[in-house]
Write a structure and sequence with these properties.
The complex is a heterodimer. Chain A contains ten helices and no strands. By secondary structure, chain A is mostly helical. Chain A has one domain: Orthogonal Bundle (MetI-like fold). In chain B, 35% of the residues lie in helices and 23% in strands. Chain B has ten helices and ten strands. Classes of the chains: A mainly alpha, B alpha/beta. At the A-B interface, helix 5 and helix 6 of A face helix 3, strand 6 and helix 4 of B. The complex binds adenosine-5'-diphosphate and magnesium ion. Magnesium ion binds next to helix 2 of chain B. Chain B: This is ATP-binding cassette domain-containing protein. Chain B: GO terms for molecular function: ATP binding; ATP hydrolysis activity. Chain B: Keywords: ATP-binding, Nucleotide-binding, Transport.
Chain lengths: 235, 258
């Protein structure tokens, strides 16, 4: 077991020296999470927008369901994804278990409800404002949806960042379906868990620092977007 | 002071009826119209007819139901009871398309002034290049504001943009819900001049205003609404000289109506 002081020193050396193992892990993390986020937005934004402007029996229950799913425990999502992807599961034929694809699927399940629930809220608020004017102007439904999505773009960008923050930092789901296989499915969070338990604090710390920097960058981006939106009264 | 009745004999109307093509094309007929929310009766069994060629001013105290009535006439909300017929037809999307409404509180898109105009032009497949929209901006003195975010405009500028946007659609029927509330005199003048030009071009205009002087300047016909009921409908010159209802008389005298 290294002492904390030397662990910090080694961590900084790994970061500033662009250690190849470290870069590979960070790169895979970013690729998996960006892919999951993209799919989540492609699925979640239309669902959120449709929920925002429609009224049908059961809509309230659906909204509550998505709001609840925002807080799904990652290990439960991992377990569900594992059962779907394992050989006996419905998606077993895809042979995705313990591949980055499996991690993308797990994170997509985790992030999509966030995108749906938050975008539904934002678009519903905007629609309350626009609805009567749109009715007066006789705006066709697809045009109205496009206008709502476009005019809510700053708010929706912060929604995407919230989803990104949750996905990049979670460990339970990617651990279960990815397996933390070195050079294949090892991402930042699983590496931190493993290296810490092995007592190799330097790599764990280096990854932890990078994760913190990413979290800070995400928050700075959210603030920047909000400031720009306020300045131009787009929010 | 001139005698309104005497004047009428010499000068029948500021705008002669025959100057307008398809006279009476947009006549409105309202029968037994009621509107209630949560058991609260806002409009009570209203019936009236409006000709298609007069500038109608809708007056009445706060909460009388003027805005609700405009929204019903525009088909934004459905009546609890009764019928609204435009030229004999119930309101639908195609009729709403030849109408435009400027809301009491303007609703502008979170975009630039120009983009707000572009949006509505796009809806009707009308020209929308910057140079083609320039005259519309100019008409309401908005050309210097073209690229500003619409929601950062002052109240008066927002009202002018809302009117410009409504006029860009070239409506046959125009609803204006207190378009000059809280505006400076120059903006009021500009908006009133614009309303008069539209009127001359044959647009049927229904204007809600609290400003008695403005109503005198613009109205050809007055509908006075009080507590969800039509207290009277009279030609403007009669209304301001000798209103027939005690509610309108009290209102014009500045007495408080409850
Ligand atoms: N959506 C609504 N829900 C409940 N009450 C409403 C609604 N819209 C209007 N009202 C009520 O109806 C009455 C008439 O409103 P309105 O037509 O806006 O008055 P005004 O003549 O001042 O324009 C008011 O008492 C108002 O509070
Ligand atoms: Mg009103």
């Amino acid at each position: 077991m290294q002492d904390f002081g030397s662990a910090f020193g080694l961590a900084f050396e790994l970061i500033v020296g662009f250690d190849t193992d470290l870069l590979a892990i960070v790169g895979l993390s970013l690729r998996v999470t960006f892919a999951a986020l993209l799919i989540s937005c492609l699925i979640g934004l239309p669902i959120g927008a449709a929920l925002a402007v429609s009224s049908f029996p059961g809509r309230g229950a659906l909204v509550v369901t998505f709001n609840t799913m925002m807080g799904l425990p990652p290990v439960v999502v991992g377990l569900l994804a594992y059962m779907m992807l394992s050989n006996a599961g419905p998606l077993g034929v895809l042979k995705l278990l313990y591949t980055p694809g499996a991690m993308v699927i797990a994170q997509t399940i985790l992030v999509t409800p966030i995108v749906v629930a938050l975008s539904r809220q934002m678009i519903e608020d905007l629609n309350k404002e626009y609805a009567e004017q749109f009715r007066s102007l006789v705006v066709p439904f697809p045009t109205a949806m496009a206008a709502l999505l476009w005019d809510a773009r700053f708010a929706l960008a912060t929604v995407a960042l919230a989803g990104f923050g949750r996905a990049i930092a979670e460990v339970g789901a990617v651990m279960i379906v990815g397996g933390n296989i070195n050079h294949v499915t090892r991402v930042m969070t699983t590496a931190i868990a493993l290296e810490t338990s092995k007592g190799d604090l330097a790599l764990a710390l280096a990854l932890g620092i990078i994760l913190l920097i990413i979290a800070m960058a995400v928050n700075a981006a959210v603030q920047g977007i909000n400031a720009k939106a306020r300045r131009n009264a787009y929010a | 002071m001139h005698d309104a009745a005497a004047l009428r004999e010499v000068l029948p109307r500021a705008v002669p009826r025959r100057a307008i093509s398809n006279v009476g094309h947009h006549t409105l007929s309202v029968r037994n119209l009621s509107f209630a929310i949560d058991g609260h009766k806002i409009l009570k069994n209203i019936s009236f007819d409006l000709p298609g060629d007069e500038l109608t001013v809708l007056m009445g105290p706060n909460g009388a139901g003027k805005s609700v009535l405009l929204r019903l006439l525009h088909g934004l909300i459905a009546p609890s009871n009764g019928t609204i017929l435009w030229n004999g037809e119930p309101i639908d999307r195609s009729i709403r398309k030849i109408q435009a409404m400027v809301f009491q509180k303007p609703v502008l898109l979170r975009r630039s002034v120009l983009s707000n105009l572009r949006f509505v032009m796009g809806l009707r497949g009308l020209a929308k290049s910057r140079s083609e929209l320039q005259p519309i901006l100019k008409r309401l003195h908005l050309e210097a504001l073209a690229d500003r975010p619409a929601r950062l405009l002052s109240g008066g500028e927002q009202q002018r943009l809302a009117l410009a946007r409504a006029l860009a659609l070239k409506p046959k029927i125009l609803f204006l819900d207190e378009p000059c509330a809280n505006l400076d005199p120059a903006s009021v003048q500009l908006i009133e001049d614009t309303i008069k030009q539209e009127k001359v071009q044959g647009t049927k205009i229904i204007l809600v205003t609290h400003d008695i002087l403005q109503a005198r300047r613009l109205a050809e016909q007055l509908v006075f609404l009080h507590r969800g009921e039509v207290a009277e409908i009279t030609p403007a010159d009669i209304f301001f000289d000798a209103p027939t209802s005690k509610e309108a008389r009290a209102y014009l005298d500045g007495r408080i109506l409850i």
